[in-house]
Write a structure and sequence with these properties.
Layout lengths: L1 H25 L2 H4 L2 H17 L4 H7 L8 H7 L18 H14 L1 H21 L2 H13 L9 E2 L4 E2 L1
Antiparallel strand pairs: 1-2
InterPro entries: AcylCoA_DH/ox_N, AcylCoA_DH/ox_N_sf, AcylCoA_DH/oxidase_NM_dom_sf
Pfam families: Acyl-CoA_dh_N
Organism: Lithospermum erythrorhizon (Purple gromwell)
Length: about 160
Amino acid sequence: MQKLFGMRSLTTSIFRNQTKALCASSFSTSVILDDTHKQFRESVAQFAQENIALHASDFDKTNSIPRELNLWKLMGDFNLHGITAPEEYGGLGLGYLYHCIALEEISRASGAVGVSYGVHSNVCINQLVNQGTPAQKQKYLPKLISGDCLGALAMSEPNGNFFI
């Protein structure tokens, strides 16, 4: 019985080490990210550490971001809100990989800010980009992208008693 248990432990150990090595080599960011992506990641990481991480504990304790910090406007000035939005509305017109990189770095600094950022930039702004009329896009996107306004999303189902 001890031999069986010892063999199982040895096999498990070898399997874990091989799996870790496989995962590390299979998911290397160097395959996915080019130099521009890496530079973007470093830039957003620095912004997040300087402007978000320093306050993350306070955000968590108070469950809010103080208005005087003006974080949303800072993020807008850094062009984080409209990463995937068209340039004609103040966005950068980049793809979702850039958005994911930004979301990851912001979330690394503060999970709470990361969630709020994701809702604002992807759920709200993205829905306006994809579903909004030209008049709605012109009216709302520039202020949402600049960080002058904070976005949200509301949904309901007619006769469904379902509201978000």
